[in-house]
Here is the input.
Amino acid sequence: MNRIAIPAVELAPAASQPLLAAVHKQLGTVPNLMKLVGNSPAALEGYLGLNAALAKGSLGAKTGERIALAIAEINACGYCLSAHTYLGKHLAKLDDAELAANRNGTSSDPKAAAAVHFASRVALERGHVTDADVRAVKATGYDDAQIVEIVLHVALNTLTNYVNEVAQTEIDFPEVKAGLRVAA
Here is the structure.
């Protein structure tokens, strides 16, 4: 049961309705997360703005989904694991083995593995990564701008993980349970 209301789109605050309509146009549906965040037009605008900005970044959709899965697993967010497993499979075209690797903080793609590992370190260490962590991700070809993007992907996904866990958002994707992560 949701702890915070998830209003129908037509019952959302007036300032949220055009933003939710744009989400519907893009996805064909309005996920519960968006309706939940839409309780606050400012929060919805901020979330959608950062999400759209990162989509224009240089990491790409596949790496963004990989990071989202790693962070959702670290934060044990069932809603986000379910959503990003679905999006990873159907939009980013990641296979089941890759989805499992991502949840464990790695990837079958060596460059993506470095980004996902670094993102996991950022989340686990609450940003207090070591010089060696930064050197390692740079050694695989990531530049300063891409490292900043990785950190912002961690922040964006942590934000949604926390919102969903606080609200206990009803999962409206095929459900995936947390608990796969075996590595730190």
Notes: The chain has a mean pLDDT of 96. The chain is about 60% helix and 0% strand. The first helix runs from residue 17 to 27.
